[in-house]
Amino acid sequence: MRTRLFIDGQFQEAASGEIFPTRDPARLTEIAHISRAGLEDVDRALAAARHAFDHGPWPRMSPAERAELLRAIADRLESHPDLAELEARDSGGTIRRISVMDVPWAVGTFRAFADLAEHTPEEVDLPFDERAPGRHVVRREPIGVCAGIIPWNFPLLMAAWKVAPAIAAGNTLVLKPACMTPLTALELADVAHRAGLPPGVLNVIPGPGEVVGEALASSPLVDKVAFTGSTAVGRRIMELASPTVKPVLLELGGKSANIVLDDADLDVAAGAVLWAAFIHAGQACEAGTRVLVQRSIFEELTQLLVERAAALRFGDPLDPDSDLGPLASRDRAKHVAAYVAIGVGEVGPPICGGAHPDGLPEGLDREAFYLPTIFKDVDNRARIAQEEIFGPVITVTAFDTDDEAVALANDTIYGLAAGVQSGDVGRARAIARRLQAGTVWINDWHAFDLRAPFGGYKQSGIGRELGRWGFESYQQLKHIGENPALEQASHPPLAVLGNAV
Ligand code: NAD
User: Fold this and answer.
1) Within 10 A of 182 (CB to CB), how many other CB atoms are there?
2) Whose CA is closest to atom 30 on ligand 1?
3) What angle in degrees, to the nearest 10, is found between the helix axes of 155-168 and 183-194?
4) How much distance in Å is there from the Cα of 228 to the middle of ligand 1?
5) Ligand 1 pocket check for 233: Cβ under 6 Å
6) Helices marked H in 279-318
7) Given this model, what pLDDT does residue 484 score?
8) Where are the domains of the chain?
9) Cα(178) to centroid(ligand 1), Å
10) What whole-number distance in Å separates Cα of residue 67 and Cα of residue 144?
11) Is 382 exposed, middle or buried (0-12, 13-18, 19+ CB in 10 A)?
């Protein structure tokens, strides 16, 4: 398979002619060769997006017309025959999860933002107030050209979360997917144009973050930058956006605490802990990686976690029976192994995992797979409890009181998500309100509602995606104040200043 950059409504070669391979991480085989974007391509993509915003039809269409097109994109994604498989092969995610979560949620994202575009009034007329006589209208307008930069863990969903709100609000966009996983973002651009999106509204240019990402974040032609990725790169994006005072939307890393209270059903709680932590081999920003367990159930729950983790089935991501696939690359598995070595130094050997799995089906690359790994009795200040590992590794820490659980949960630079597993909803809600996290799940995890905001407290980010909060972040506000003088003779224009001078 050979694919190119998507600029101004068509696939185009990179100016340099360079190409790079993308691999199926489960087998290490190359699945596609892709044009590698460089600075000249950034310029071309930005010129296309700029032209589409400044002169094209998209920002000038009515919200209802834009909504109709978003729904057409959603329909095409939903009936796309190969999208789930393409995503599973490129990212190593299991086809089961991608078919029931990633693809339907990407489709739902376009539908949700179509609804918001249609139902959010473009103009609000403020009620008359004699302290500010006249007519005061607040308009919502698109921001302009947006840049979206996304990671490799959920490539299609992350692309949908950047593209749908930006274009629903009338902006144009240049999207830079991660080089490891560019295929479904390019496919999305093609689908959108076949559905009728005007050229230049959505441009997709895979290329190195240090070149393409930095150029987008710093360009004076970009009016807003939306970034999902690590906190370290998020800090860099803020720096690069600062000279041109661009608004930034940052969705960054996490080290989310999952609190298990002594009144929880242990079987259900054990399931919730594994689901929270090990989805996509732990490569989820909102994964529940710090498990805090009340002391009276600590030993029993830990034992259950080990037994249940051992029962998870590794396999080919394309096999619907696989619970877990590989990490996104061999390098990611090496990165996880390095953190496990740090953990061994800090707290001793893990109580399970800590190695590549045996007995994988023929043809799979064992070096890319890694066993669910559990470290017990971990001090919350240990590096493995504080640093984002982004793999199938959890720490388990005991606590005595609810106050202590809250203090431990909040003792991190991150604040993306958290969870409380409990049989007493009132107690769980009281704890949820005290947790410094953008999302808190009670007796659940990864339960997204596309109408609810998603984003982080503290160093997990700035701003929110999804819901009306996400939609509004792609709009800017304009106040049009009409002097009433022409209508009301009693109220002359610039009355105060006029008298003063
Ligand atoms: P990353 O920060 O290394 O890269 C993310 C994207 O930024 C990629 O497209 C990359 O090419 C680009 N990039 C890298 N360096 C850049 C630079 N100097 N300037 C501009 N762009 C640059 O992250 P990753 O390893 O791809 O993804 C994993 C990280 O993403 C984790 O920290 C995870 O928590 C985070 N994440 C967060 C969310 C969220 O919604 N909060 C969702 C998914 C992933």
Assistant:
1) 30
2) 229
3) 40
4) 5
5) yes
6) 298-310
7) 74
8) 2-252+460-480, 257-442
9) 8
10) 18
11) middle
Could you read off the pLDDT of 398-411 as tens digits, one per residue? Answer: 999 999 999 999 99
**CATH number for the domain formed by residue range(s) 257-442:** 3.40.309.10
pLDDT at 134 over 90: no
Across the range 281-305, mean pLDDT stands at: 98
CA-to-CA separations, 259 to 196, 343, 378, in angstroms, rounded:
47, 21, 14
Phi and psi (nearest 5°) for 130? Answer: -65, -15
Report the alpha-carbon distance of residue 276 to residue 257 in Å, rounded: 10
For the cut 70, the answer to whether the pLDDT of residue 305 exceeds it is: yes
* Segment 28-59, tens digit of pLDDT: 999 999 999 999 999 999 999 999 999 999 99
Q: What is the CA radius of gyration of the chain?
A: 25
How do residues 374-405 score in pLDDT, each as one tens digit?
999 999 999 999 999 999 999 999 999 999 99
Q: Which residue has the tokens 């659940």?
A: 444
User: Residue written as tokens 């070595």?
Assistant: 341
Q: Does CATH place domain 2-252+460-480 in 3.40.605.10?
A: yes
Residues above pLDDT 70, as percent of the chain: 97
Buried b (16+ CB within 10 A) or exposed e, 268-283: ebbbbbbbbbbbbbbb
- Pairing of the two strands 417-421 and 257-260: parallel
**CA distances (Å), origin 69, targets 111, 163, 168:** 10, 13, 9
Pairing between strand 393-399 and 373-376? Answer: parallel
Q: Assess whether pLDDT exceeds 70 at residue 489.
A: no
Q: Report, as residue numbers or ranges, the catalytic residues.
A: 251, 285
| pTM above threshold 0.70 | yes
Residue nearest to atom 9 of ligand 1 (CA): 178
Residue 91 in contact with ligand 1 by CB distance below 6 A:
no
